[in-house]
Amino acid sequence: MKMDSTLVALGVSILGMVITVHLGVKTVIKRRQNQKTTDHDLVDDYNPYDLSNVPLNAQEAHSNLALVKHLKPLAQMLQPGDQVELNELKQRLNYAGMRRNEDLELFNAVRSGILLFSLLIIALLMILNPMSNKLLLWLVMTFAGAYYLPMLWLSSKVNARQEAIQRSLPPTLDLLVTCMEAGLNLEGALERVSKEMLASDPELAEELQVILRELNAGLNVSVAFKKFANRVQGDDLKNLSNVIIQSVTLGSSLGRALREYAATARRRREFKLEEEAGKVAAKLTLPLTVCLLPCSMIAMLAPAIVTISNALGR
Q1: What is the spatial distance between Cα 34 and Cα 56, in angstroms, rounded to a whole number?
Q2: pLDDT per residue over 71-81, tens digit each?
Q3: Collapsing DSSP states into helix, strand and coil, what is residue 259?
């Protein structure tokens, strides 16, 4: 009976953690989907230099600020006290595309809510059941899961977004080279490419829009692309930023530099794909050995085993 109540309480705790994470993540994803929908509606009359086209409208900003205001005491519980840790968390959120201040507050509030809920379940389990080693192990696992689950979600979000940006780089480079060779300057090429990529590759298009707005705000090209390099993790994008910065600083032909870099990046991608294809055989060795070898041995030896068994049985 005690074991059944323990399992029920643990099931309730896990279900509550999942529901809490789902509600927090659903809030962030819903706002992102609304932003992408607004972006898609603005494709036809898109102008990156017009700040009125920023997807976050006044009503949405007001609702987000009101939500963060109510959750701020909860968010302060797990707010990193060290400035270095706080900057690292902001950087990871920035990698995930959540660069607003309310995103940091909302993320910390979700973490604190999950942690408080897990502590409540732990207290309930300790009241309902006497402490034992097995129950203590489950409590520690529940507490650890409540603490690290949001960080694992953030890591998966960062990896998914950075991979999407990396996949968007080759067509973006081709479009940039085409626009530059057609006579557009850097700002015009970025504007055109961001407009074309907004529906198919919104992650990289969003980063290009940020660059355009920074240039419109008065930043020079070097500073804008240095900040862009700090917002991404891929080496190809950082190298692209360095190529553009060097070309603008030295006054060389930016179109030629982008064309050469596009060819180099394409060859590098081909080499990487060939390397991954070459690793497939090595990765398949263990599954084939474990799964197919026993079946093959059984198929080859079974007739002989049956024959020997029949002979000995006589």
Answers
A1: 9
A2: 566 656 666 66
A3: helix
